[in-house]
Write a structure and sequence with these properties.
76% helix, Sodium/glucose cotransporter, Osmoregulated proline transporter OpuE, transmembrane helix, transmembrane transporter activity, mainly alpha, single chain, 568 residues, 1% strand, two-stranded antiparallel sheet
Length: 568
């Protein structure tokens, strides 16, 4: 439980974040600055906001909860698999998003498949933007830290997230994400070595789990084949995650978003090691899981930290959750205003009207999310439910729109979305059982291939609205900002993968760390897991945060000198 000094620490940090967000909010006077930060995010800020937005309650507390049931399979299937399938997103898809997606994913659907596809996509995306699993994570933190009612704790955090979203816009959200990113990574890295070594490292954990469930300490043993496939699908889900689309379009160039995400891979994997092995420690301490694992994690960490640091840890955990909630609320608000309401008006929404509707939508999201967040046994169960739905409806048409340069008709997009969604509803209600996959399989495993078949059949009918970067008739799409600004040859340079440059070095860093962590796990090397992983995560985070502070200082210094020159 937190003490008075811990609570004061948290309050001071929250006030500081609000002051920063309010300052940035004064600069958000129109839709471009409010929703997309004028497409000016530098590399360091892009890293911070991508890392914090994705690694929220799901990535921290949720990972601990789910990994208690999976053991080492969590690392080898979930962590390694997650990042491997996302490399194409960073290397090839992200730069193209800067060209093909001017704002939201629904704008992309409207361009290639028409208004109905855009509206259906908007509705499904709003379900994703409710952040149900993040709200659930908040409740468990409140129970462990203050002994509070989980609904009350979640409601307080929702209010904070809504205020940050409404006040600061994307730039305010991104900057507060950077702060949350720093405290989140540092707090996890700071406490993990003590948790791991107090349990006796590998030897201590293994001696207990071998007597209860030996499969948990094998690379692939703690999970069924069907569940493993679902986890990989969740990893692929990021290809249609609206938060990444917004971050990539808000970056100051194609290379920025690409390299920011490549940097995140190594940080995320190091974090995974810390969180997943903490989960294994929790399972060893409570083999029957008599205590909710997410609550047990917070309680375990707080029991080993002194005053003030306990407050900073909770601020980091809550910050991770808030950074994800405010990200998705901002995106969801933009979708409601610009993609659902605006198309049905005779006159377009003004900037002021759009921002106001977005803020009202955020409040509604909070109410709905709070009403359903605690109906799932684990945080990851809520995430899997929402991800399975959105994957079934959106994955095929969105990926085809971005990557496939051939013919794409409106009938193809609509057929894919309706068949995928219908199949998900049907097979969620009447699950298919496949013995080799471990029993009942997730509905998305059936819906996805059916969605692809529907796309291919539908592509033989209907009308081609746009072809590649151009309209079907050959006219360039005026909405695609980069084609009209960047010379084609310059654009090719921007999206080119520099294998013998920064891109290759970041890929090599990830591969090297993955190899080292795998060696450490398979050979039970305590110092690699207990010390190296948290130190790598902390060091990279500190360097990125320092780089951002340097960029801010340099910007203000140059601005100050410029103002002096003008006065002269």
């Amino acid at each position: 439980m937190l003490t008075t000094i811990d609570n004061i620490t948290i309050i001071i940090c929250v006030i500081g974040v609000f002051l920063i967000s309010n300052t940035m909010g004064k600069e958000s006077k129109d839709m471009e600055s409010y929703y997309h930060a004028n497409k000016s995010l530098p590399w360091s800020l892009a890293v911070g906001t991508i890392a914090a937005s994705w690694y929220g309650g799901n990535g921290t507390i949720g990972t601990v909860g789910y990994a208690t049931t999976m053991g080492l399979a969590a690392f080898f299937i979930w962590s390694i698999g997650a990042h491997l399938v996302r490399f194409p997103l960073a290397l090839w898809v992200a730069p193209r998003i800067s060209v093909k997606v001017n704002s939201t994913m629904t704008e992309l659907l409207d361009r290639f498949y028409g208004r109905i596809a855009s509206l259906l996509g908007a509705i499904v995306l709003i379900v994703s933007c409710l952040s149900i699993s993040e709200i659930g994570a908040t409740g468990y933190v409140g129970v462990a830290a203050w002994g509070a009612n989980k609904f009350v704790a979640a409601a307080v955090i929702i209010v904070i997230a809504i205020l940050l979203t409404c006040v600061g816009g994307l730039m305010g959200v991104a900057i507060t994400d950077m702060i949350f990113f720093f405290f989140m990574i540092m707090s996890v890295a700071m406490v993990f070595p003590k948790v791991f070594f107090d349990m006796g490292g590998f030897a201590g954990v293994e001696s207990i789990l071998n007597a209860t469930d030996p499969s948990l300490m094998t690379p692939l043993g703690g999970i069924t084949t069907g569940k493993a496939i679902v986890l990989i699908l969740i990893c692929i889900n990021v290809y249609k995650d609206p938060a990444f689309y917004q971050r990539f379009t808000a970056s100051n160039g194609p290379k920025t978003g690409k390299r920011a995400m490549l940097t995140c891979f190594s940080i995320w994997m190091s974090m995974d090691v810390c969180l997943m092995f903490t989960a294994i420690v929790i399972r060893a301490m409570d083999p029957a899981l008599t205590v909710q694992p997410e609550v047990a994690y917070i309680a375990l960490v707080l029991s080993g930290l002194p005053g003030v640091l306990r407050g900073l840890f909770i601020f980091g955990m809550m910050g991770a959750i808030i950074s994800t909630i405010d990200t998705y609320y901002l995106i969801g608000g933009e979708i409601v205003a610009n993609d659902i309401i605006n198309p049905f008006r005779k006159t377009p929404l003004s900037d002021r009207q759009s921002i106001f509707i977005s803020r009202v939508a955020c409040v509604i999201f909070g109410i709905i999310g709070l009403s359903v967040a605690f109906r799932f046994a684990l945080i990851y169960d809520a995430m899997i439910f929402v991800t399975s739905l959105s994957m079934s409806v959106l994955f095929v048409p969105v990926l085809m729109a971005i990557m496939y340069e051939g013919k794409k008709t409106n009938a193809a997009g609509l057929a894919s979305m309706f068949v995928g969604g219908g199949a998900w509803i049907l097979f969620s209600r009447y699950p298919v059982s496949i013995a080799v996959l471990g029993g009942a399989v997730d509905a998305s495993l059936v819906a996805l291939p059916l969605s692809l078949v529907a796309f291919l059949i539908g592509n033989r009918f209907g009308k081609e609205l746009h072809h590649g970067y151009q309209a079907a008739g050959g006219t360039e799409i005026g909405e695609t900002i980069d084609i009209s600004v960047i010379d084609p040859e310059e654009y090719k340079k921007e999206i080119k993968v520099e294998w013998f440059g920064v891109d290759g070095a970041l890929c090599l860093l990830y591969a090297g760390l993955a190899g080292i962590y795998t060696f450490g796990i398979l050979n039970r090397v305590d110092w690699i897991i207990g010390w190296m992983a948290p130190l790598i995560a902390a060091a990279m985070t500190t360097l990125i945060f320092g780089r951002y502070l340097f960029e801010v200082f340099s910007f203000h210094k140059s601005l100050k000198n410029s103002n002096k020159s003008v006065k002269k």
